[in-house]
Amino acid sequence: MEKHHSSLQELPIDVDGKYYQIQHKQHNNLTNVAIRYLPSLLLVTSIIITFVLLNGAPFRSTNNNPSYLLPNGVSNSSSPVVLPSSITSPVSSSSSSRDAVVDEGLRVSLAPSSTTDQNKQKCDLFTGKWVWDEENAPYYTNATCSAIHEQQNCIKYEKPNLDFTKWRWKPNECELPIFDPVEFLELLRGKSLAFIGDSVGRNQFASLVCLLAKVGYPEDHSYSPDPQTKRVVYTNYNFTLSLFWSPYLVKTKENGPSNSGAPLNIYLDEFDVEWTSQIEYHDYIILSAGHWFFRPAMFYESGKLVGCLYCDDDNVKHFDPTYGYGRAFATSFRAVNSLENFKGIAFLRTFSPSHFEGGSWNEGGNCLKTKPFLSNETQLHDQDLKMYTTQLEEFKVAEREGLKKNSGVVNNFRLLDTTQMLWLRPDGHPSSYWHTKGEVGKYNDCVHWCLPGPIDTSNDILFEMLKIETN
Length: 471
What we know:
Blueprint: H1 7-10, H2 29-36, H3 38-55, E1 109-110, E2 123-124, E3 128-132, E4 167-171, H4 181-187, E5 192-197, H5 199-211, E6 219-220, E7 230-234, E8 239-245, E9 250-253, E10 264-271, H6 273-276, E11 284-287, E12 297-301, E13 304-309, H7 321-338, E14 345-349, H8 382-405, E15 413-416, H9 419-423, H10 456-470
Parallel strand pairs: 5-8, 5-11, 10-12, 11-14, 14-15
Antiparallel strand pairs: 1-2, 3-4, 6-7, 7-8, 9-10, 12-13
Helix pairs in contact: 7-8
């Protein structure tokens, strides 16, 4: 990293503040000059030092990227609350009912080349750019991993440009290490990790299984007949990996036959016991949810209908998607905080953006770009930005409540803030390459991620965060 020198450091001042008289054999009168102007120089020096003390060093580095969480994960609640400039665009007051906030203390930092060298400046893992890396990427293919879901098997369905597999995430101030499956399994020996959420969470679960496939496949120890709820064990390491299907994270109920198209009943203040009853003794859980909250729904709180999303009933209040989204996360975080025996870490994997162009998913929209955006080329905006900031607001509340529960000593929440990173990857979706050519009635998928693909990097970062936890 470039070393910055301030003008103060270059002034000829010793530790006692005395001016070093410059001796020169050919110009003896320089000594007299130095003595003559000594009072003025001392006065200037005094003014500069006073200005620095009162206003902060004017010569400090212009790098404003802060270090966020310390390795112990405790956030600084006094940090200013701002959205990273690289992820935001101006939003009119009418576009969001809430202010967009990200506490600097929520983010995770890592030393430039080591998680253990405390003398090195830390860096933000989530702010960076995608760099071409043909040597190390991809980690796997559909020939080396059998866990790839058909809908993300872009290589099988002949996505024409496979360059999307050859990019790696490069944080601005450090290197993100290549994923080492043996090291990962050793790190999590005797531990348990669960993904909880929707099909993008399942996408990340499958990515992790593929990343670990070089070591071996786990044994299926699933207890549920639901194929979307899984429990697998890497027996040689006694590591348990689970997947809980809960696209709304809270209690839901069908409003008529499942194929009727009727809005689902969402009980925004009630736990989804399918996962809340199972995770109390897990070491790590990853919560995520997103695009299901754009579907028609009837919202219930305290057992009463309070409103809806995209319904035809004029007698109930109509809400924006962020209403149900925020309350569902508030309830799921409350569920975690209510578990007396939960001593693990709960990660929030932030909103995974879609990249439809030319229409929405059911209007012929598609995602045909073949390379990542540059970090300064585009900004998160509109509904994606509102969903993202809604998550962060509820996360911050949960973190405060968790610290209160733990007497201010232990923080059980971490932010896996991958939204910006994934926003820069419009090329990484299946598009139409998730089914056989010519099949009718199929939409273009610009929500999920090809495997291998950008979501593998979410697990790269998760791995680094787990290293910090163990340190």
